[in-house]
Amino acid sequence: MRNITKLFPGVKALDDVNLIVEEGEIHALVGENGAGKSTLMNVLSGIYPHGTYEGDVLYDGQICSFKEIRDSERKGIVIIHQELALVPYLTIGENMYLGNERGSAFNIDWDATYHEADKLLKIVGLQESSRTLIKDIGVGKQQLVEIAKALGKNVKLLILDEPTASLNESDSRKLLDLLKDLQKKGVTSIMISHKLNEINYVADKITIIRDGSTIETLDKAVDEISEERIIKGMVGRELTDRFPKRESHIGDINFAVKNWTVRHPLYTERKVVDDVSINVRKGEVVGIAGLMGAGRTELAMSVFGKAYGSGISGELEKDGKPLSLHSIRQAIDNKIAYVTEDRKGDGLVLMKSINENITLAKMSKVTKRGAIDKDHEVAVSKTYRDKLRIKCPTVHQLTGNLSGGNQQKVLLSKWMFSEPDIMILDEPTRGIDVGAKYEIYCIINDLAAEGKSIIMISSELPEILGICDRIYVMNEGKMIGELSREDASQEIIMGMILSASKGA
Amino acid sequence: MEDTKKFSGKSILSGIKQYSMLIALLAVVVVFTITTDGKIMRPASITNLIFQNAYVVILAVGMLLCILTGGNIDLSVGSVAGFIGAIAGKLIIANKFNVYISIVICLAIGILVGMWHGFWIAYVKIPPFIVTLTGWLIFKGLNLIVLGATTLSPYPDSFLVMSTKFFPDLFAVEGFNLTCFLVGVIAVAAYAIVSTFSRIRKARKGYENESIISFLLKLVIMGAAVIFVAFKLASHNGIPTVLLILAIIVMAYSYITNKTVAGRYLYAIGGNQKAARLSGINTNKAFFLVYTNMAFLAAVCGLVTAARLNSSTPTAGQGYEMDAIASCFIGGASAYGGVGTVSGALIGAAFMGVLNMGMSIMGIQTDVQNLVKGLVLLLAVAFDVVSKRKTR
Fold this sequence. Notes:
heterodimer; A: alpha/beta; Rossmann fold; 3 domains; 6-stranded mixed β-sheet; B: mainly alpha; ABC transporter involved in vitamin B12 uptake, BtuC; 16 helices; 74% helix
């Protein structure tokens, strides 16, 4: 790709970008959110048609002018987006050949479809029948289906936009190994990712993009690649410490969950959270580590006014007094906040402005005699914008137009505005870049310094170890350990999880 | 200071896009003024426009709230309006019941109907489309049962006040209803004073204000439109009483959607129901109240319609739901929920009304009218969608 420049109204998303990918390599594309990685890939795959950008796309030495995705697919370029494009109520096979049906337009050959689909599924290492419905398989497997679908189109250049963002460690590893297998079969891959360890593991070359320009390309064979090196390129400065320091001033226990058991809302015989007890002190940051599906989110949501689950039993205690919560409203009124893991799906109203989102959980604070004081609302939002450094032209901006990190800050503002004593943060840094993560950590530290109690759920162990005073480890609905910051390490925590899984 | 909007060419353009449906409405008015040789601008026409379209405005306001919660519609409103009209006829005409008590009973029955719908939608979780489809059948059936397939007529004057009468003139000027004109002028003056004070208050507190030019422009255009209509009405019979009902409904619901927490919650639910629920909003209650309110407004509409027709008939209210739904969408409501305004629905209703009246005056046959209406509506909404897309 040569001298690519792409303009959006008011923004120069790509500025004279050059990217060279050689046949048969795995090329990683890294950069902060909003740096232009996805835009660049959309240009390459024809989502932004020829003519809407400047510069040339060269493939096998030829200048390409893709008008639509089909044109690029005909050349063997297939893009897999972060949000998977699968239809839940169709089978794996139907999805794989959607838009590329076997047989003729008036007579689809289902036998051939499923036969070929099964063959491709075997290649990607998926043990499902191609007649299974997409909704019945997990996200990790869906990702594999997407790759199988690409193989069905005779892919030569595979583009993956954050393929492991919603996968757990073992599924991620499987996916990365699959990429390496495909590489041996001659498939070139471009992978956008935030996870530096994965890039280190799989990539031959790494191109760093910042603010719409290519900064540099590192070659594993030539350059020495380290995480520090990549981070420096991404943020344009040395991040000496990825986790800001904090002096802990820990007070008394002010929130405790005792013998908490939650059952699955549909399969009520299944205990999703099983006899869990945790507590958090004033000014303390407590982490809950565990694999995906360990029951951490379910624990948090069931505590938050029974937002999840059925047959909930156990006790809550706040400031030494028993507390019973039957609705989310009650939980908020009792100064508990739950900052959801899925900020787009469950957290923000994307089509509404920043200020409307910030006040939503506690409207009474900007309301006088039943009427919303909109001016006050805007003023409040501005103070949060300045305090958390939300990058936006005005607070009337729609939250849907913000980058992931800024959306997360709006979400945090919303719950800080509800003035909680207890804040439960569920994966607060998922899918946001290193620089924004650092800022989120600083906010968490400030909140703890103000005397709030923070419960942080995270699947990234370095983050848990870097931020928390105390760490709980959960596995398969059970609490399997409690560690102080000093005693904990990645190895110990993973060891606990693995041995607990074996025992069960 | 970065938040202060500069009044530049760009902001005029975005202003045009923001008010695209209003401009389309004006265009239609201009076209019909030309094609009907100004007949549509006659005082009697404008008075008639209000009488004929009061029902759409009332229903569209309620329908807007339903649509806000996520593109949900209420198909039963026409049948419910007809059913309530039938009850009013049974009470007032057949049984000579007190008019005012009858009105209260009718409104109460409307609320019960809404609670019926709301129960199935909010607590049993049946999609609104299906629940109100059954309501459409049920209340059409009940309408016929109540009336026994006959028409009841006429209503006493005290009931007709709701829809076919005018406010009395306090001054005796020949051929001109000065009261009506003064009310228009006072309304504009009051609006100007209130909004000026709000500007001053904002400036004093250091809040941002819209630019003075766009503020004045809006004030002048709105004021001119209101005074123009007031002048026309004054040249006829004065203020129709139904206009007061409309004004109260439009202002009350504008206030609810704009300024109250309940209104804000509706937008949030339509925008992202899960996020709204996790923000402590009781979404079930919201659905229940929205559909209860819808049937209440359908009851108001039923009474106004009965008064205008001066009778209760088995066919009253048929097709009203489609007019209301169309008004909302013409007025810029999103079919996915979360976007839409009461004033937009009002503009949508006016658009439909002008279209109907203009073509009737021109003597176009009803079959052709429907064809033109359908196409114009499609064009209008397409224009709105396309112009909004470009602003992004």
